[in-house]
Every structure is written in structure tokens, then in C-alpha cells.
Design a protein that fits this description.
This protein has helices at about 5-25, 30-40, 75-80, 95-105, 160-170, 170-180, 185, and strands at about 65-75, 85-90, 125-130, 135-140, 145-150, 155. By secondary structure, it is an alpha+beta fold. The chain has one domain (about 25-185).
Length: about 190
């Protein structure tokens, strides 16, 4: 066998092994998030994102996404198997830009002891996508209201982030989370 034939055979073998490895790739969280946005189907529970990482100075929403899938989970949803989260697909670029700007302006949560209202467990999974990539944020709606993407956390506090997000989800979700009757006035559509 000539050197040329051996080289060609080696390259062909390497390409074949590479193709097999790609074909056997497992689904990544980014793939699952992209599929959720594509199908507008929220996962049954929000992912457990690690908080605080090496990139704490970065943006909460770094993609400049062109769509957002919101998945709202009340305490009841999280406790009942098979409960369907409330959801909304947002494609309005002005709304996305307003939310992105508000998220990226959030300060860090306090590091010391803090007194917060009761945490009843309501959360929103925010999946931002540009069609090729996705970033997931989990926002706590009660207690010490914070939002994080696994690398950076932000304190929602008195910012407009909570109002924007709740204004995009069905009004009934607000009532489930806060057991409030004035949700129509509090959650105004941006």
C-alpha cells in the first residue's frame, strides 16, 4: 500500500469516526431549550441552574434574542406531577429589548443576611433564543425575587423586570402565584 493510499485511508477513517461521534451526540441543555422555543412547549419544571459563577460581570441576556418563551410555574404546578406551566411566546422586538435592557441593568443580590417576604415557590423560566442558541434564566417570583442564568444573578427588587414578565403571562398565573385579586392592575402589558 502506497503512502498516498495509507493517508487517504487514514483520513477516511478519521472522518467516519467523526461522523459517528457526531451522530451519537447527546442532547445538550441548549438543544432542549431551542426545542422548547421551537415547539412552544415548556418543560414540566424549570431547570436547576447553578447560581453565581466565574462570569458574574456578564449580561443576564447576552444573545440579543429575537424570541422568548416564558414558562410560569406556580407552587401548585411544581407540587403536582403533570401540571402544565403557563406560557407565552414573545416575538415583539421592542418588548424583548425593554426586558433585555432591564435584566442587564439589575444589580447583584445582597451577600449578607436579608429579610424577604414569604417564598411561596413561584418561578418563571425565561428561554431567550436567536434561533441557533438559547439562554435560560430562572426568575423567583416570591421571597427574595432574583433572576439568574447560571453565570450571573440579578436582584429583581423594585425594577420593572417582574412587571414586564408578569404582564406577558396569562393574568390567571399572577393570581395563582400571589393569590391576589388586583393582578389586572399590577401586571401591565409592556
Amino acid at each position: 500500500m502506497s503512502v498516498r493510499s495509507r493517508t487517504t485511508a487514514w483520513v477516511a477513517s478519521a472522518l467516519t469516526l467523526g461522523a459517528v461521534a457526531v451522530g451519537c451526540a447527546t442532547e445538550t441543555p441548549d438543544d432542549a431549550a431551542l426545542e422548547a422555543v421551537r415547539t412552544t412547549r415548556c418543560p414540566v419544571a424549570p431547570p436547576a441552574l447553578k447560581t453565581g459563577g466565574a462570569d458574574d460581570r456578564g449580561s443576564l441576556e447576552p444573545l440579543a434574542a429575537n424570541r422568548l418563551l416564558l414558562c410560569g410555574y406556580s407552587t401548585q404546578d411544581l407540587n403536582e406531577r403533570g401540571a402544565t406551566p403557563r406560557q407565552a411566546l414573545v416575538t415583539d422586538q421592542a418588548v424583548l429589548q425593554r426586558l433585555r435592557t432591564s435584566l442587564n441593568r439589575l444589580g447583584e443580590p445582597p451577600s449578607g443576611p436579608v429579610n424577604c417576604p414569604a417564598d411561596t415557590g413561584g418561578k418563571v423560566l425565561e428561554i431567550f433564543s436567536d434561533g441557533h442558541h438559547a439562554i435560560e434564566l430562572v426568575q423567583k417570583l416570591t421571597g427574595c425575587q432574583e433572576v439568574g442564568n447560571g453565570h450571573r444573578d440579578g436582584r429583581v427588587g423594585n425594577s420593572d423586570v417582574g412587571t414586564i414578565v408578569m404582564g406577558l403571562l396569562p393574568t390567571g398565573f399572577c393570581r395563582e402565584v400571589w393569590r391576589a385579586t388586583d393582578c389586572d392592575q399590577r401586571a401591565s402589558t409592556p
